[in-house]
Structures are given as C-alpha cells and as structure tokens.
Design goal:
UDP-N-acetylmuramoyl-L-alanine:D-glutamate ligase; seven-stranded parallel sheet; CARKD; NAD; isomerase
C-alpha cells in the first residue's frame, strides 16, 4: 500500500536533469527510453497478435520511437513506422536512432497506412512529447485524429502529443492514450486538468536515473507514504479528550446540510468532540441522524477548540462577515472553504488579517473561488493550475488545495503535491463540505497541518474510489456516502501501517515535520 515517493518535475526540471546527464550517459538516454517503452509495449500487448504502428515526429520524441521500433522488431514483433519529416532535420541523437533502425532492417512509410483487416495490436504516439509549445496542425493533427480512432491500446511516449506537460491543457489536436510511458519522472500535466483524460494508465520509467539526486524535487505525487508515520494505533487506555475538539461554522438558512456534512465527516474520522455552529436562526438543535454532533448557534461555540472550519453553508449576507472575522482571530488551525473564501475575496481588511495569522491556515478553493481570491478568472486558473495554487499559498501565507481533477496542494514555501485518487463522480453537491470535515478532524487530532491537508485530500478520493469498486458510483455518488467509506479506508490504513516495518530514516519531503 505504501508506495515510494514519486517526484514530479516540470519540463524545465526534466531538461535540466537531461542536460547534466546527456554528455556522459552510457547507454544514451534515448536508447534507454526506447528500450523501456518497448518493454512496456510487450507487457501491454503480450496476448494481442498483429502489427504495431509507431508514429514518429521530427524531434527527440520521434527518436525514442525509432529506438522502440528497433527493439520491438528485434523481439520478433511486426512494426510499421510512419515518419513524414526529413531525416537530415532530426536532432543528432534522433538521427542516429533513425539510422540504427534502418540499418537493423526496418522500413518507414511517409503517411499513416490503413489499419490491417484485424486491426493494429497497438498504436504508439512518438510525435512531440514534452517539448511542444504550440497547437498541432495540418498533417500531424490529422494523424492524431486517426490514431485516436483506433480500437486498440494507444500508447504515448513521455506525454501525449498535444498535451502541455506542465499544465495538462490540450494544445489543439491531442492524442488520447490508454497508456502513457513517461521517462525519468512524472510531469504535472499528466496528473491534473485534462491530463488524466488523455494519459490513461501511466508507467514511469526512470531509465536508470535517480532524478532527485540530480535536481531536488519541489513536487510529489500524493501517496499514503507521505503521512504513514502519523498512522499510529490508539492506546487502549484512552479517552475522547485526547482526540481534539473540532468545530464547523456555517449552515445559514437553506444550507444547514453543508455544515452537517462537514461535522459528520470530522466525527467519523475519530475526532473527540465535534461542534457545529449554525447561522440559520431556525436551524435544528440536534442532528437526529448523528446526535453525537453538538449543534450550537454560531456565536456560542466554545472558546477552547483544537481546530475550526468555516465556510460550509456560511452564506455571504448578514452576520457572515463578522463571524469570519472572529474565526480569523482565533489562535488555532483554521480551514476556510466555500463562502468564507468568497467573503475574503471581497474584503481587503479580512485578507490582511488572514495574512497576519500566527496559527496555521488552510484554504480549499475550487477554481472559481481561487480566481476570485487572485483577482483573475476561472479560465486563467485552469490554464495553469499549479501556478495558481502556488500563488495563492504565497500570497495568503496559507496551505492551499486547489480542488479539481488532480487536486493540487501547495505550501507557502513553494512545495507542491498532486493527488491522483478520486473520480468524476465526486463532481456532486457537498463533496467539498466532506473534505473540509475530514481535514478539520485530522487537524483537531493534532496532525501537522500540511500532513492533515494532504491526507484528507487523498483519503477523500480514496473513499470515492472504494465505493466505485463496490458498484456505488461513479455516477450518482453522493457526498454523504463518502463519509462512511472514508472511515473504512482510514482504518484500513491504520491496520496496514501497523503490519509494516518502521523506517526511522527520512520518509517525506518535509511533510508533517
């Protein structure tokens, strides 16, 4: 369960590592990449007969494709290589790969051939990789549309052509892979925005390179290994006072359910006591589904709390801004979500108070809320989600999760993490409220804020994944269903952590320390 840390590098970082290694690499990096891609292809289509089509482009990604073609042909597979550029224009290493492929008996066609009667066993996109900075047009765009239409496994080398490797934004025509073999390390665009819809299953081939040894990583893929050290069994001699007092502030008229969802999520993750402060004057005095929750008027929450979340169902009218100002003044870990973020974006005085807080602050915006906080627009945020998340963390001196496909956790010191758990069924009402409750529950129990946010984000998606495996969702999944599943996943993590040997050495990129 606990996978090793997986670093993520933007294109500039990958280029820096390559520049350090290429002059003296033996065997050359392109040879290693093509060989690794061929090995992935063999595993992928071991039981599929028929020829393999590899579309090679005019740069080093095409060179990877030529090496792959040579390796596959030498392994006895029938290979068809399509290449429409001039060999003399290839970069030096790609030109050598092209020549080596021909010398080994390979042949090349200048246009995509029609599929054989029984179809291709595999089609491979080796057109442009990570270096693309403009939309793909003309013949290559036509090739991509044809490759995407093939009813067989579709494999991309490094990054699907047409996908921005840093942002996950499609640049015009974009290859839609069922499998992507990426080299050296993960890239942000594979994991966020439209990346997951174009990459399919991702295989990271390190090609004998320990990337962090050459360039320390600022970004990592979120995995349980980032917070494994905090998954400790509870002693039998214990009581609820040891597990914190959490509070949720919100629940204005017509939106009480949002606050209850957050409160239930905190309760079901093991928080000692959970208070829910409601702004609705006609709000309930008890949650009959979960009477363990202590419902209060917003202004009567206890002074002594371990952690507080404000925003679920808060609204932006009436006393909401005053309630937010009071929350910001509390010297405890504070999570701000939903309308708390909208109030902040509209009030410079509240933003100034936020930036001077001494205690930890967590912001959980979706793209539209992030845009308001940045004085931008949603399209700009989505065009570069990593940049937006890092700017929010820096500007507000807060931990941030920019929610969405491939949620990004960013820290004020410019470290970042991308989450891969979860699915499209989570695009439903109340999911953000549940996430707020999960993170607040961990904060109340004394988890370091960065670890609490990372674990809460990952747990939320993992709960939805478990439900989908059980046939509950993805379509029609409700937020309340993920609360019970999150408890189950979390307890599973605890059991698994107890079974595994402890490693007292470095285990995370400063997470939770």
């Amino acid at each position: 369960m606990f996978s090793p840390l997986r670093p993520i590098y933007p294109v500039a970082g990958i280029r820096e590592i390559e520049d350090k290694l290429i002059p003296n690499a033996r065997p050359p990096l392109m040879e290693r990449a093509g060989r690794a891609a061929a090995q992935d292809a063999v595993r992928l289509i071991m039981d599929r007969p028929g020829p393999i089509l590899i579309a090679c482009g005019p740069g080093n990604n095409g060179g990877d494709g030529f090496v792959m073609a040579r390796q596959l042909a030498q392994a006895g597979r029938e290979v068809v290589v399509a290449f429409c550029s001039a060999a003399e224009r290839l970069p030096a290493e790609a030109a050598k790969a092209h020549a080596d492929y021909l010398a080994a008996g390979g042949s090349i066609v200048s246009d995509l051939p029609a599929a054989p009667a029984n179809g291709w066993a595999l089609v491979v996109d080796a057109l442009f990789g990570i270096g693309l900075g403009r939309p793909i047009e003309d013949r290559y765009a036509s090739w991509i549309h044809t490759l995407n239409a093939q009813p067989c496994p579709r494999m991309a080398l490094d990054v699907p052509s047409g996908l921005d490797a840093d942002t996950g934004s499609p640049l015009g025509a974009t290859f839609r892979a069922t499998h992507t073999t990426t080299f050296i390390a993960l890239k942000p665009g594979l994991l966020t925005n439209d990346g997951p819809d174009h990459c399919g299953e991702i295989s990271v081939q390190r090609i004998e390179i320990d990337a962090p040894a050459w360039l320390p990583a600022r970004g990592y893929a979120i995995a349980s290994s980032l917070f494994r050290h905090l998954l400790q069994p509870r002693p039998r001699n214990t009581h609820k006072g040891l597990y914190g007092d959490a509070a949720i502030l919100g629940g204005n008229a017509g939106m009480v359910g949002a606050a209850l969802l957050a409160g239930r999520a905190a309760l079901w993750l093991g928080t000692g006591r959970v208070y829910v402060g409601l702004l609705d004057p006609a709000g309930p005095a008890v949650d009959f589904a979960h009477p363990e929750l202590m419902l209060r008027r917003a202004e009567t929450l206890p002074e002594r709390l371990s952690a507080l979340a404000i925003g679920p169902g808060l609204g932006t009218q009436g006393a909401s801004a005053n309630v937010l100002a009071d929350a910001l003044a509390r010297p405890i870990p504070l999570l701000l979500d939903a309308d708390a973020l909208n109030l902040l974006s509209a009030d410079a005085a509240l933003r100034r108070v936020l930036c001077t807080r001494g205690a930890a602050t967590v912001l959980t915006p979706h793209p539209a809320e992030a845009a308001r906080l940045l004085g931008s627009d949603t399209a700009s945020v989505q065009a570069d989600r990593l940049r937006a998340a890092l700017e929010l963390a820096r500007r507000y001196r807060a931990l941030v999760v920019l929610k969405g496909c491939g949620s990004i956790v960013a820290t004020p010191d410019e470290r970042w993490f991308i989450n891969g758990s979860g699915h499209s069924g989570m695009a439903s009402a109340g999911m953000g409220d549940v996430l707020s409750g999960l993170v607040t529950g961990l904060l109340a129990q004394g988890w370091p804020p960065e670890s609490a946010l990372i674990a809460g984000v990952h747990l939320h998606g993992a709960a939805a994944d478990r439900l989908a495996r059980e046939g509950i969702g993805p379509v029609g999944l409700s937020a309340s269903e993920t609360i019970d599943a999150a408890r189950g996943v979390f307890n599973g993590w605890l059991i698994e952590a107890q079974r595994e040997p402890r490693n007292t050495g470095p285990h995370s990129p400063r997470t939770g320390r």
